[in-house]
Design a protein that fits this description.
- The longest helix is centred in the first third of the chain and has 15 residues, at 27-41.
- This protein has helices spanning 27-41, 88-102, 117-125, and strands at 9-12, 45-51, 59-64, 71-79, 107-113, 129-141, 147-160.
- With 162 residues, the protein is α+β, with helices and mostly antiparallel strands.
């Protein structure tokens, strides 16, 4: 039996898309994404939407060009939970790498939480190599609705783009 094949495309995430991206995180997270879209209009970042023919995002993620000279840093990568392990994350990363190449940059980098071995395995399968560790953190909504700081340790990986 053959599986379902989806035709996917990559495009810029638009502010109007955010209402359809509640699967990617809390309202606080979506506020952060909205702020990044303002940076995208200035060319400092790319923020991608991966869509099937319906045009609704099933994966989103950013590329920041200001973190490390000569590299694009992938961050806030998310695939709709019901569609994980279908190759959509690989498609998203490939689209992000193409954006990095189109700017003439030679490296892609990303950080993955050490508590997320499944994501790290994907990145390594796509050619990323670990080269550093660093703490990271961000604000998140607590169950009671308050904002708290989430702290974690991440492995930093990079890939040379030919």
């Amino acid at each position: 039996m053959d599986g379902v094949v989806l035709a996917l495309s990559a495009r810029d995430l638009e502010p109007d898309d955010l209402a359809a991206c509640t699967w990617s995180g809390s309202a606080l997270h979506l506020d952060s994404v909205a702020a990044q879209l303002a940076r995208a209009r200035l060319g400092a970042v790319d923020y991608l939407a991966i869509c099937p023919p319906s045009g609704l995002p099933v994966a989103i993620g950013g590329v920041d060009y200001s973190v490390r000279e000569g590299a694009g840093t992938l961050w806030q990568l998310a695939v709709h939970p019901a569609l994980q392990s279908c190759g959509i994350g690989s498609f998203l990363i490939g689209a992000a790498e193409q954006r990095i190449r189109s700017r003439g940059l030679g490296w892609a980098e990303l950080a993955v939480e050490e508590s997320n071995p499944r994501a790290r395995a994907l990145y390594e399968r796509l050619g990323y190599v670990a080269y550093d560790r660093r703490p990271d953190g961000w604000d998140e909504l607590a169950p009671d609705g308050s904002v708290r700081r989430y702290e974690t340790m991440c492995t930093v990986l990079r890939k040379q783009l030919a």
